[in-house]
Amino acid sequence: MNDFKHKILDILKEDSRRSTNEIAVMLGVPEEGVIVAIAEMEADHVIVKYSTVVNWSKVDEEKVTALIEVQITPERGRGFDAIAERIYLYPEVKSVYLMSGAYDLLVEIEGKNLREAAMFVSNKLSPIDAVLSTKTHFILKKYKQDGIIFEDKEDDHRLVISP
């Protein structure tokens, strides 16, 4: 992939709502080149989806996110891929990562509440034959996601005292 496409990706990663015209102006190139480059990256599945980062703590909707460490026995001939595929096909699963270290997969799930997330682990994930063990961590608060800081900083309203 060339430097031009990388620059477009950097701009879209920062704000996917930027128009092709804005990107062209930022890069000092004709808009048509940006349109073609984006279309090629979409066709090649380099750009897979345009999404919005939501601060769910500001929304009146209960949601629980859990990160689950999973140790598995890889399948002969397919390694970790077959088990990862079986897991990522569940609708509760938001992300699955192959990891180095103490566990093999890191699975991110969302549920309506703690019970729903726990039921996913006990009824769907743990019964898979290749799963040796799981360790579930519930996210209590998100401070930063995808480079976006969620904390509202309060202004210091104290009076300045000088000698």
TrEMBL record:
<feature type="domain" description="Transcription regulator AsnC/Lrp ligand binding">
    <location>
        <begin position="70"/>
        <end position="141"/>
    </location>
</feature>
<protein>
    <submittedName>
        <fullName>AsnC family transcriptional regulator</fullName>
    </submittedName>
</protein>
<dbReference type="InterPro" id="IPR050684">
    <property type="entry name" value="HTH-Siroheme_Decarb"/>
</dbReference>
<dbReference type="InterPro" id="IPR036388">
    <property type="entry name" value="WH-like_DNA-bd_sf"/>
</dbReference>
<dbReference type="Pfam" id="PF01037">
    <property type="entry name" value="AsnC_trans_reg"/>
</dbReference>
<dbReference type="Pfam" id="PF13412">
    <property type="entry name" value="HTH_24"/>
</dbReference>
<dbReference type="InterPro" id="IPR036390">
    <property type="entry name" value="WH_DNA-bd_sf"/>
</dbReference>
<dbReference type="InterPro" id="IPR019888">
    <property type="entry name" value="Tscrpt_reg_AsnC-like"/>
</dbReference>
<dbReference type="InterPro" id="IPR011008">
    <property type="entry name" value="Dimeric_a/b-barrel"/>
</dbReference>
<dbReference type="InterPro" id="IPR019887">
    <property type="entry name" value="Tscrpt_reg_AsnC/Lrp_C"/>
</dbReference>
